[in-house]
Write a structure and sequence with these properties.
The protein has 29 helices and 14 strands. The chain is of the alpha+beta class and 607 residues long. Helix 12 runs parallel beside helix 15, helix 15 crosses helix 16 and helix 16 packs parallel to helix 18.
């Protein structure tokens, strides 16, 4: 459903100027710098191949909102006949340099914004083709070429006579025959030797530009949206891959039914911003808006949740065969369905934020898996208030912690999304067995030794569970730590035995790992400032600062699943083994299962 044709560059640039050729709105902005523009102009003057451009006939089943190429003054009312899929950077550069009567807005080698005019040095251009790059001259916006740190004027090109005297032909008039002839007469009048030089210049430079042809692939309007997007990404291998949100932004903006109904186009970015601002404003776990609209919970996450609910509903109604949120499902998400489902999913994600707070996860940096929120929100949107019953929330909580502590969302997630939505909904409704994320999740005790950084979901999970089960800070000892106090107190994961102390007190160079989560616990910044030297020494200082008796402060220590006796003895190995056992039990309780190692040991004991 595609044809290949050769189109004259002049006709193509005229279509850009008129708006007959425009961009689909998902195309990113033009960004070529001065050097690349000079290089492509040189390519055209030499009649070297420019490369194929690809267009799509406007209309059909793939409606996109269109916009003019940068520099073209086209009214929004002008409907294009073709949309440019590949070739934006090349055609925009050539349009601005060769067709418009204003300087090209580009950037220099350092990335600074500049405005430039482009000329051809006639004398250099009629020499060796190898020197053609040097013959293309970039001139500042004021059309004055300077030297000696801009103190001396080399050429003043503000008039045609100045251009002729410098022997610099203005490329912006190359396709305007009347202006070229007037410029030629002024040039030849200045010097008899210019007659022959102009003849060679016209033959070697101007004629190749005027007759230059661009090979064009034209996709039919009936080409499916999925195919258009696949083609676009294959031919734009040098750029940043498009995301689904950008593609849907363009297709929703081009939705004719919406425009006829409202008189305006649908602005998906504004809709998403409003949703994200409300979610992040109420629950910081979804990200920091000052870091960008897609910091934390992303537009892709939201669209996937919408697609999961849509395909689940269609399957229930007999209109679809499966639950899915793959790329194709998102690209085929109709605007009407998105409009209907988006408010439901926004409310569902707000519920997810509150659920996470009940798990003592309130900051984006402490979130184990962002991806796990997608099926969780979809399930809430499907079940609604049915998730608020005690039994249902217990099931969902077990599923959540199995996913985190079993590290089930660390790889490919789309298949797990699908299974979890269907299985978790059925489980909560008492219509099916426990989801595979619950039954297949395991936590091996030795994993504790390797949980050392926030890169691990289980590491963050244990940190949150310690707060959830009632850990009391060692400075603010009045009440257990609460999600609302995390930022105020500067709560973070802190070492219990300082690493330097552990290294100095190793026996035979062997010891349990000092950087493991076993040797860490959630504490405020004020408490952490006292954690220097041996625990046996700093604990009494903390107790005194809290105006507490030793045995009372030992109770505070115990809320972190730490044996205060071993801590006071400075016995790191015994402390590590005892706390590892406590953390294992906490993990198994959250997952609703026992360790594999213990199951095997118990089985052997029975035999």
């Amino acid at each position: 459903m595609a044809g290949l044709d050769n189109v004259k560059l002049k006709a193509l640039l005229a279509d850009v100027a008129s708006g007959a050729l425009q961009l689909p709105d998902f195309q990113r902005d033009w960004k070529w710098d001065d050097d690349r523009i000079r290089a492509i102009v040189a390519t055209v003057t030499l009649d070297y191949p420019l490369g194929v451009v690809m267009t799509l006939e406007a209309g059909g089943d793939s409606p996109f909102r269109a916009r003019a190429l940068t520099g073209a003054k086209v009214s929004e009312d002008v409907a294009p006949s073709l949309l440019l899929l590949d070739g934006q950077q090349r055609l925009t550069s050539l349009f601005q340099a060769l067709f418009q009567e204003s300087p090209v807005e580009t950037s220099d080698a350092r990335g600074n914004a500049v405005r430039r005019w482009y000329y051809v040095d006639i004398e250099k251009a009629v020499g060796s083709p190898a020197d053609r790059d040097e013959a293309i001259v970039s001139v500042p916006e004021d059309k004055v070429l300077r030297a000696n740190f801009a103190r001396d004027v080399v050429h003043d090109l503000t008039t045609a006579n100045g251009e002729c005297a410098a022997g610099l032909f203005p490329l912006r008039i190359v396709f305007d025959t009347a202006k070229v002839n007037a410029w030629r007469r002024a040039y030849e009048k200045m010097d008899d030797g210019h007659f022959d030089r102009w003849s060679r210049f016209e033959e070697q430079v101007l004629e190749p530009v005027r007759s230059f042809q661009v090979p064009m692939i034209k996709l039919a309007a009936s080409t499916s949206m999925d195919a258009v997007c696949a083609v676009f990404e294959r031919v734009n291998t040098g750029g940043v891959p498009l995301n689904v949100f950008e593609l849907l932004t363009a297709t929703y903006a081009g939705d004719r039914a919406y425009r006829e109904r409202t008189g305006d186009y649908y602005q998906l970015p504004q809709v998403w911003r409003a949703i994200k601002e409300e979610l992040a404003g109420g629950h910081p776990v979804f990200g920091r808006l000052e870091a960008g609209i897609d910091d934390g919970l992303s537009s892709s996450d939201f669209l996937q949740a919408v697609a999961l609910v849509r395909t689940w509903s269609r399957k229930q109604d007999g209109q679809g065969t499966g639950v899915s949120c793959k790329r194709r499902d998102l690209l085929e998400l109709p605007l009407a369905d998105f409009e209907s489902l988006a408010p439901r999913l926004a409310k569902a994600f707000a519920w997810v934020g509150a659920f996470l707070e009940r798990q003592c996860i309130v900051r984006a940096a402490d979130l184990p898996y962002r991806t796990q929120l997608v099926p969780l929100a979809a399930v809430r949107a499907i079940l609604g208030e049915a998730t608020d019953t005690l039994g249902a929330e217990d099931m969902i909580t077990q599923w959540y912690w199995c996913g985190v502590l079993g590290e089930m969302y660390g790889g490919s997630t789309e298949t797990r999304f699908t299974r979890d939505v269907e299985q978790l909904v059925a489980w909560v409704r008492r219509g099916g067995p426990a989801p595979e994320t619950v039954t297949d999740a395991y936590f091996f005790p030795e994993r504790l030794d390797t949980l050392t950084t926030r890169n691990s979901a289980a590491y963050k999970g244990i940190y949150a569970l310690l707060i959830k089960q009632g850990a009391v800070d060692w400075h603010y000892t009045e009440t257990p730590l609460k999600p609302s106090l995390m930022d105020e107190y500067g709560v973070d994961v802190r070492h219990i035995f300082p690493r330097t102390w552990v290294r100095r007190n190793q026996e035979g160079g062997k010891t349990s790992p000092a950087n493991s989560i076993v040797n860490k616990t959630p504490l405020s910044l004020r408490a952490a400032q006292a954690l220097t030297g041996a625990p046996g020494a700093y604990l009494d200082s903390l107790a005194a600062a809290s105006d507490m008796r030793r045995e009372w402060f030992d109770d505070v220590i115990a809320t972190h699943l730490i044996d205060p006796y071993l801590l006071r003895k400075n016995d790191y190995e015994a402390f590590y083994a005892a706390r590892a056992k406590q953390l294992e039990d906490m993990v198994y309780h959250a997952m609703g299962k026992r360790t594999i190692l213990r199951d095997m040991t118990d089985a052997k004991a029975v035999k």
